[in-house]
Amino acid sequence: LVQGQKIVKLTGEALPLGILEYVMPSEKKVTLAERDRVILISDGIADAYDTEEDVMRMLHRRLSDNVQEMADAVLQDAMERQSGLPEDDMTVLCIQLTARYIRKKRSIPA
Question: How far apart are CA 35 and CA 31, in angstroms?
């Protein structure tokens, strides 16, 4: 979760989705504000880095990027760390909250 210049790692208690057929995901509620970002990375991305701190440093370097540039840069950096030969699938999803989707006493359009 990126809020301004602050990056917060959110973790869950459940097994990763897709490991078993009937795993229920854990839920975590957080309050998001306009321009906050949610960044999801697969284990293939995380495993390309030596430490969690390396992942966080990479994300900090890309905070001024738009979400597409950030996702592309994270994927490219992870691929380079594995010499272009990933050992696992690599997925990065970056979402940024915009004003038109913030609830203001009415429903968010479906």
Answer: 12
CA dist., res. 83 & res. 9, Å (int): 27
Helix (H) or strand (E) holding 45: helix 43-48
Rounded to two decimals, the pTM is 0.77
Q: How many CB atoms lie within 10 A of CB 88?
A: 13
d(CA 47, CA 32): 28
- Structure-block tokens of residue 1: 């979760």
Structure tokens at 57: 């440093």
The per-residue pLDDT for range 47-75, each reduced to its tens digit, is 999 999 999 999 999 998 999 999 999 99
Q: Which residues pair with 2 in a beta bridge?
A: 7, 37
Higher-pLDDT residue of 19 and 4 is 4
Q: How many CB atoms lie within 10 A of CB 38?
A: 15
Q: Please state, in angstroms and rounded to a whole number, the distance separating the CA atoms of residues 38 and 56.
A: 13
